[in-house]
Amino acid sequence: MLRRQLLHFGAFTLGGLPVSLVHAQGGAQKKFVVVLLRGAVDGLSVVAPFGEREYAASRPQIALPPPGADDGLIRLDSLFGLHPALAPLKRHWDGGQLAFVHASGSPDPTRSHFDAQDYFESGTPGRKSTPDGWMNRLLMALPGEPSPTRAISQGSTPPRIFAGTASVASLGLGPDAMQRRAIDDPQLQAGLARLYAHDPQLGSTLRDTTEGRGEMARSMAAGDAPAMDPSADAGAPSARSFAADARRLGTLIRKDPHTQLAFTAVGGWDSHVNQGAGKGQLANRLASLGAGLDALASGLGDSLKDTVIVVASEFGRTLRQNGNGGTDHGRGNVMWLLGGPVAGGQVLGEWPGLDRAALADGRDLAVRTDFRQVLAPLLQRHLGLTEAALATVFPQGPQTWRYAERLLRG
Q1: CB within 8 A of 215, min separation 6: which ones?
Q2: Which InterPro entries does the record cross-reference, listed alphabetically (predicted)?
Q3: Is position 182 within any domain?
Q4: Number of H helices, E strands in the chain
Q5: Which of 80, 88, 133, 221 could connect to 163 by a Cys-Cys bridge, CB 3.0–4.6 Å?
C-alpha cells in the first residue's frame, strides 16, 4: 500500500516534524496559485451584470439588488457589481490587486461536472485521453532549479491538475495537516531506502517524499501556522472550512522560498435549489470563500506582491432561475485574478450581453474567452515561460492569447 501511495501522482504528504527553520532566504520567487471552485459557482451572482435589463428579469427571486439597495451589490463599474458577501475582497479591488475576466470558460459545451473539471485540469478541453494535468506539465517546464516543494497540492486526494511524472508535495486539510506521520520515522526511511535501492522510480519518489516533508515542516516551524452534490465537489472541502486552510497554505508558500506553484479546491457550488440572493445559501458560501481568499492573501504576507492567484470553476450557471429558486448547469463564468502583479480594478473580457440571441443555446452566458487565453499570458509574463514551454503546457491552446497586455502590471 505504501508503494502505491508513493507512486500515486508522484505526490507526498506533509507531517509536522519539529525541526527549526534553516532555509536561507534568497531572492523573491514568482508564485502562482490556482483555486478551483468545484460544482460550478454562479458567476452571474459573483460579478453580477446589474446594468443589463435581462439580468433582473430572468431572476425574479435571486437577482442581486443594485448597488445602494439593502443587501445590494458592491459597485465595480456601471455594468457590474460584486456580491455583497465578498465585501472582504473589496479592499483588494480598491488597491488594484483584484480583477475579473467575465464570459470566460471552456470551449467544450459539456455540462457534466466530471468532464468539465477534467478538461480544465488537463488543459485540453474535449480530449479525455490526456494522461497528465497542465500544472504538472507547467512544473516540468518552469525555468530554474527544481525542488521537492516547488509545487504544493492542498487536499485529501491528489488532483487531476497535478497528475504526471513530476513530484508534487501534498498538504492535508485541517490542523491535522501538520501532524507527524509514519514516514517521518528515520528508521522507516532508512529501511525503505534499502528496499528501493535498486528501483530508480521508487527510490527517487521516496527521496522527494522525505526531503519535501522535512523542507515544508522546517518552513512551518516558526509557529505562526493557525491551529485552526458530493460528486460535483470531487472530494473538495466546503467553503466553511476554507479560511484556516487557506491561511495555512499562504503561510507555507511565504515561508518556503522554493515553493512556486500551489493548487487547492473548494466544493459546494452546485446551487440547483434555494440559491438565494444577497442572503441565503450561496451568500453564506461566498462569504466563507471571500474570507478564505482574504486569509490566503494575509498568509502570503509580503509574498503577495510576487503572487498571482487564479480562481476558476468548471462552468457557469443558467441565466434564468429554475422552479426551485436555483440555477442549473450553464456555460460562461467569471475568472478571478488576485495578487500584487495583477492589473486590478477592472472587469476584463468580451461581454456578449444577455439578449436571448446572444445566449449560448438560448439559455446561458456565452463563452467568449477560453480559460487558457487567461492562463497562458500569466504563465509567460509572470513565470517566464517561453513560447516552446507554453506549447507543452497547453498543447492544443488557442492561436491567440487575449488580454495579455492588460492582465498584469508593467
Answers
A1: 23, 147, 148, 149, 256, 258
A2: DUF1501
A3: yes
A4: 14, 13
A5: 133
Q: What is the DSSP string of 390-410?
A: HHHHSTT--SS-TTHHHHB--
Does the residue 80 lie in any domain?
Answer: yes
Asked if 28 and 258 touch (Cβ cutoff 8 Å), the reply is: no
Mean pLDDT score of the chain: 85
Tens digit of each residue's pLDDT (9 = 90 or more) over 212-230: 445 444 444 444 433 325 5
Residue with cell 528508521: 187
Percent above pLDDT 70 for the chain: 76
Tell me which of 58-62, 85-89, 178-182 is least confident: 178-182
Q: Which domain holds residue 89?
A: 2-17+27-407
Report pTM.
0.82
Task: DSSP letter for 64, please.
Answer: P
CATH number at residue 64: 3.40.720
Q: Which amino acid is at 357?
A: A
Residue 156's pLDDT is 86
Contact 139, 132 (CB under 8 A): no
* Three-class DSSP labels, 196-229: CCCCHHHHHHHHHHHHHHHHHHHHCCCCCCCCCC
